[in-house]
Amino acid sequence: MRERLLSWLWPRSLRGQMLLAIALALFLAQGIGALLLYRAEHERIEGALVHNAAFRLGVAIQGEPKLPKGRGPERHERLRGSRVTMAPASPVRADDRRETSQEMELRRILIDQEVPVAEVLVVHRPVTGDALARELLDRRDRRYRGPRPSDVMIAAVRLESSPNWLVARVFVPPTERLMLRTLFGQTLFIYAVLVGAMWLMLRRITRPLAALTTRLERFAETRDSAGQLEPQGPDDIARLITAHNAMEAGIVALLDEKDVMLGAIGHDLKTPLAALRVRIETVEDDTERQRMATTIEDITRTLDDILSLARVGRPTDERESTELSALVAAVVEEYEDMGEPVELGDSARIVLPLRSTWIRRALRNLIGNALRYGAVARVSLTREAGAAVIRIADDGPGIAEDQISHMLEPFTRGDPSRNSETGGAGLGLTLARAIAEQHGGTLTLANRRGPGGAVEGLDVTLRLPA
Amino acid sequence: MTRTIDSVATICRTAAMTDTSPVDRPVRLMLVDDEAALREPLADYLTRQGFAVQQAASAAEAREILRAETPDLALLDIMMPGEDGLSLCRHLVETRQLPTIFLTARGEATDRIVGLEIGADDYVVKPFEPRELVARIRSVLRRATRAASEPQAAEDRAELLVFEGWALDPLKRRLTDPEGAVVAISSAEFRLLMAFLEHPRRVLDRDRLLDMVQGREAHLFDRAVDNQVSRLRRKIEPDSKNPQLIQTVWGGGYMLAAEVRRRPAGA
């Protein structure tokens, strides 16, 4: 659960990760800065409070440290108008926390003033918890209305010569809370500005990268140099884009060269084959001539398969919205017309964007295989979850389980003898699979087993995403 | 395995075909191919089949021949050094309206369309069966004669034939359904559909259909007009058991029960 949350929070993009790292680092740096600033300010205020208390206490001590008698445990005697009272016992209560650093500071100041200090106490207390402070504050409020301090600092000192405590009360100004708020606001503002600026800068860096990625994905699919990116962004990335464009151009040139070469091979081999095909017409023996013609057809088919396989990844034709059941029927009918045992079963009407010349070729290869090895081809087209599924079933011996994955590789035939009766160079399945993949689909082979577990035939499934 | 595709339509007409009957003299062919290894045996073969063959090793030689006389049909290789077959075909179509058949090593659909768009009548992929080439030559000549004698039958190939939302592009032999999806049809089905579209709301009996759609695959086709009709129905009828578009007429025949409109192909 926690891991999932963490992985959800962890950004996956370069920009997100860099922004997170920068945001965290900035947060840390600014937090420490703000803390130090707060500490310094806090100390300044505390120092001012201590000085205030020391001043009052000093005035009281140098004035008249005489204690009026018989007036309760802590006589709230105002000494010469200062907020200093005199008490026979320590004003510290059990729930007070002593501010030792302020005590030391106060002691130092008083000793500097040559006050014979025996003991020093400093505590902070909320105004509401101190009756005298409340009274003082109420009195002040009558003349001056301003933000009411919430805390009061109580500083007490006992002189060496006396058992009594002189107690001064200094209000902690509410500015400390105000200061905290300002500091927080400023920090947050600077933080937001910096993170925002970083976001913009990162976008400048990562946008061309994202564009390059999109371009690469498109190129991987189309292998077409149209729509190249202009070099943009920081120098490194602009250079990356330039280098990528050069590489793309190189790949396109290679592929073009390959296509030209294949075209030339096709032309150069097919012309003599055509000449041969014409010349055998002079052969008197009909059987012999027919055999020659079949051989020439086999060579031509293999040549076509090789040329197609080399071109399948870079089709020149666009996909076109095509009714698949008519296409399947058209190929099945070709075989029917040749008197082959082809059956067309279920055939749902499915319209898909297809390259129909390629799909035809795949279907011809698959049906041709079924007829060659499986005596019969039963073809069906059904719609399944998100896919159009063409099944070609035969009644042949199937394929040994360990050979199935091997069968889709080039130049592999189920029949190990490779005798010419069965024909073909073993490119048919490879090509059919490549065509399926060209359309984003898959080709799978599976043995069909009867109730007894014996193989009854092979099921070939061509699945095209719908 | 040679797969060949021809087109019904032709704009290549020869004046010679209309007035002088080809029975009087052998059909004159011009064979243009840079490969002597193919050209020579093919010329011999065609001569044995009763044609008068003139050979040209290049487009330039072909033009030389054309200066002296006009053959009845040209067989053109597409890939030739110098001027290629496509360019020569364009010249032949524009100046002579000469029926042409391409011989090509390439079998890609794009070539076929380019070839047919510039006015070639048919196309064979090397290596072809010589007998099939002869059948094609005869078929193209027959169509050219028919087209010349009944000019209204020669439709403008740049037009789409539209019926009940369906559209047939005669040039690309491309049928699209009312939603615009391509529906694959065979050559025989294409010719059958063309016959219906050229004669909408007219009863066509089996013999008439056979005559009109007879193509190269005649040996396949004449087996069963009915079979072809039922295949075509499966592809274009919403319910092939209860056909609405191609209706069976009692007494032996079929009829297209739809209006056919012509629309420019680009639209």
UniProtKB/TrEMBL annotation, chain A:
Its EC number is 2.7.13.3. It is a multi-pass membrane protein. The chain crosses the membrane at residues 183-202. It is an enzyme of class 2 (transferase). GO terms for molecular function: ATP binding; phosphorelay sensor kinase activity. One of its GO terms (cellular component) is plasma membrane. The keyword Nucleotide-binding applies. It is found in: Cell membrane. Residues 264-466 form the Histidine kinase domain. It holds the Pfam family HATPase_c. Residues 203-256 form the HAMP domain. The keyword Phosphoprotein applies. It catalyses: ATP + protein L-histidine = ADP + protein N-phospho-L-histidine. Its main location: membrane. Keywords: ATP-binding, Cell membrane, Kinase, Membrane, Nucleotide-binding, Phosphoprotein, Transferase, Transmembrane, Transmembrane helix. PROSITE patterns: HAMP, HIS_KIN. PANTHER family: SENSOR PROTEIN CREC, SENSOR PROTEIN RSTB. This is histidine kinase.
